Amino acid sequence: MTYVDLVLNRLATGQEREAVIGGDTRLTRGQARDLVFRLADGLARRGIGRGDGVAVFIGNTPEALLLTVAVHLLGARLVYVPPEPGQRELAALIEKAEVAAVVVDPGFSTRLTGWDLAELPGDPVERTPAPDFTTVSYTGGTTGLPKLAVHGPRSTSRWEALSHTPSLTMLCSTLITHGSGAGASVGALVTGSKLVLGPSVFDADVFVRLARDEQVNATFFVPPMMYEVLDHPDCPGPQFLSIGLGGSPLAPERLRQAVERWGPVVYQGYGMTEAMAIAFMPATAVDLAKPHTLRTVGKPNPEMEVEVRDGDVWVRGPHVMRGYWGEPPLSETSDGWLNTGDVGHFDEDGYLYLDDRSKDVIVTGRTSDNVYSRLLDDFLVTLPGIRQAAAVAAPDERWGEAVHLFVVVEDGHELDLHEVEQAVVAELGDLYAPRGVTVVPRLPLTQVGKVDKRRLRALLR
Ligand code: AMP
What we know:
Layout: H1 3-11, E1 18-22, E2 25-28, H2 29-45, E3 53-57, H3 62-73, E4 77-80, H4 87-97, E5 101-104, E6 115-116, E7 134-139, E8 147-151, H5 156-162, E9 169-172, H6 179-191, E10 194-197, H7 204-213, E11 218-221, H8 223-230, E12 242-246, H9 252-262, E13 266-272, E14 275-281, H10 292-295, E15 299-300, E16 305-309, E17 312-316, E18 323-324, H11 330-333, E19 338-346, E20 352-357, E21 362-364, E22 369-371, H12 373-380, E23 386-396, E24 400-409, H13 417-428, E25 436-439, H14 453-459
Parallel strand pairs: 1-10, 3-4, 3-5, 4-7, 5-6, 9-10, 9-11, 11-12, 12-13, 24-25
Antiparallel strand pairs: 1-2, 7-8, 8-18, 13-14, 14-15, 16-17, 17-19, 19-20, 21-22, 23-24
Helix pairs in contact: 1-2, 1-6, 2-3, 12-13
The chain binds adenosine monophosphate (AMP).
Adenosine monophosphate is lined by residues 139, 179, 246-250, 268, 270-273, 297, 340-342, 354, 357.
């Protein structure tokens, strides 16, 4: 049994209830189930079967989400195409993924050609879901070369546990083609929650409107999205039963603000494209009186082995990818272990802390020491007038790299670099002293909504 069985079973009950909403489309459970079978039929008629690669270039719409379920239903290989790359990189990616077909939602993008999603549905032929399938996701990779991470179906035990949780109204604000949005939206379908899909590109105004109009009580954010909502003049009140965060570092001060505003409903998850569900910090364990509970990403998922080796976090277990497409599986090369590329440590109680992405560490000073940019990012937003901050390495003749800050300040606030420097040195020491600062109206975000430090570094070269 896979999650597809659970989704279809759920959609077969209470068929008149609303299941998936997005843009102008509102589908009941019955309509959603019907569309999964229609899409599977359309694919099957065009020759798609078990193991065939189907690349999907889609945004956040109900039809697109149900397409991904349909591909898995047939036991095919679902290849998520990310939104970022330019034409040439997209073509290279499709070639590398060795797919049998590409399905495109022209409403999302016309940069790729393929079968039009709107024309795909066939007849609502009920099919038994295949017992196995794979999912392939694009990852920027630490070397800068895009790689394709291959996952098998996740065990249904987690989904089955979820399927007994009370149904919610879930607003999915991240892309359904990224692990975060896929996890949130599939979780909603499995639990019979009403799913509201936010636009493919996050927009805090739309979030605020949908949260109000659809009476949303659960959501998942990449942290920078939550910061925009917290700073929004119409930020929702304490209407949520569950708010998930993950995908990039969460500033403890911002987590504090979220809990103060929304109550003890904010949890954090740590995962990555190559390894989902590594660690989890439940909302009930976040205690404003205990600052370390605002900094940790929680304890390892009991199904996963997590070790810190020479500062790097390594993981092994059922949520780790099988390997990269076209390369030997991890089970052959590293006994299943994966280096996450995150620098971290455990405390004596077994809580995991992420100090930085290894590529974001700034190596500076006379003895080439490590500055964890994340510590700076978290500290800077506690200073008056600073809303958002990102510290990155600037090339520097004397120190190899120098700390450079990009900050978003409150309207009318005059930033005094000298004051900032003094505060940083008092808190984190001389090594962390910024050598330069750029005030920006907003930090650049990736399409998934994470602060794009690569782009910031490029500005300094
Ligand atoms: P991606 O493969 O795009 O999902 O990015 C995965 C990376 O995001 C991880 O390796 C971490 O560096 C970062 N990340 C994910 N979740 C968290 C979290 N809760 N706290 C800090 N960083 C995170």
